[in-house]
Amino acid sequence: xxxxxxxxxxxxxxIGVHLAxxxxxxxxxxxxxxxxxxxxxxxxxxxxxxxIQASVRACENPAELGPQDxxxxxxxxxxxxxxxxxxxPLMGPDTVVLTAMNGVPWWFLQGFGxxxxxxxxxxxxxxxxxxxxxxxxxxxxxxxxxxxxxxxxGVIRHHFGNGLIVGEPGGDDxxxxxxxxxxxxxxxxxxxxxxxxxxxxxxxxxGNMTINPISAFTGATTDVILDDPLVRQFVSSVxxxxxxxxxxxxxxxxxxxxxxxxxxxKLGAFRTSMLQDVQARKPVELxxxxxxxxxxxxxTGVATPFTDALLGLxxxxxxxxxxxxxx
Length: 327
Description:
By secondary structure, the chain is of the alpha/beta class. It contains twelve helices and ten strands.
């Protein structure tokens, strides 16, 4: 099976190494220091004291790799439009694109959402270029429940978690979904197929749409954020707005914000991915995590004053660092 990782960072590299162990013909689209490291040393995954090596054919130009059976897109949302413009040579007639990304994706309302079904979210795909090059019919959505980081280019460290949830945007139980789920299970992941992948996307977003940006502009780890009663109350207020929006589009959440805070606390003190991006001076994915929720609020008629405040503060901070587009 020909598998290409588009975005061989922490999550993409973690998945790629495991699939290579299952005999997949692994390639990667990369550039800069990551491309050089992959070409010289392949991929390395560190889990505790164990190190697993995987060979990978790495190129900057997707045309050198040709059509794939599976393309795993594991980039941050700000890079997605550029990926879409260049992914064409990897796409054969039956190629599946698995998205392993945070936040609301461009295909979120395709085949789902009641009255909003088919709506394009301007906050996520303002020019429509992503949907043009990667239509929802190509996509199997993925939700990652794992923590990984990059020790060095091409060297991935797995910290905890092993969950992958996959599902068709339209909710169908298709042969390709069953085949992908089985492959991921064989590769050692705790992989499950979802009948409504948008609900899984939304539930994960419900936790990280607040903690991620707050950590990014304060520099605080998750435990410090939740230990401050005023900040925790603000986080809960944002979450209640998102929960109301979810109910109106068909993805209700039964939990309370305090229930979710308890889950986050169990993970201990850690730096969120957005805080790591800020510290590394990489663009932040505010639109997929926060702007999309604000837009969905406007589409459903839900007032979002707390979400608006979170977005305003976050993007002001990110713009000051050159990590978010200017107005």
